[in-house]
Amino acid sequence: MGKSASKQFAEEVLKVHNDYRKKHGVPPLKLCKKLNRGAQQYAEELATTRVLKHSSESANGNCGENLAWASYDQSGKDVADRWYSEIKNYSFQNPGFSSRTGHFTAMVWKNTKKMGVGKASASDGSTFVVARYDPAGNVVNPGYYEENVLPPRK
């Protein structure tokens, strides 16, 4: 049956987020029970449908959301490192939204305070991971990216 995001898994994802956020000089995130619950529920839904798509909550802008799928049981570090690796596609000279960097910008968004993590396994052994962010980053209004996605400090 679907393994839920153990506290350990959620804390691992959080720790990697905060290590990366520190590099960018932005404050750490805290885990939030309510966001954990929502993320877990949604991860279980994804594991049932096996279609990786964003939730209506995130579409409505109620929360930021990162999703990950793998054919195996992914570790929290794996997932967060994969999201962060999009930094290579991000232009700090020309900031703004791109679907190729959305996971990365959500992770290091300065104004985000809290996160939740969910993980569920599908019957074929693949796993779905959901991270929820509050307040939601990746705002499409101009100016927000410059203030919220800061280049890594040397």
UniProtKB/TrEMBL annotation:
MF terms (GO), sorted A to Z: protein homodimerization activity
Assigned keywords, A-Z: Coiled coil, Golgi apparatus, Lipoprotein, Membrane, Myristate
Subcellular location: Golgi apparatus membrane
SUPFAM superfamilies: PR-1-like
Domain SCP, residue spans: 8-141
Gene3D superfamilies given in the database record: CAP
GO BP, sorted A to Z: positive regulation of epithelial cell migration; positive regulation of epithelial to mesenchymal transition; positive regulation of ERK1 and ERK2 cascade
Pfam families cross-referenced by the UniProt entry: CAP
PROSITE patterns: CRISP_1 (PS01009)
Membrane topology designation: Lipid-anchor
GO annotation, cellular component aspect: extracellular region; Golgi membrane
Subunit composition and interactions: Homodimer. Interacts with CAV1.
Family as reported in the entry's similarity comment: Belongs to the CRISP family.
Protein name as it appears in the record: Golgi-associated plant pathogenesis-related protein 1
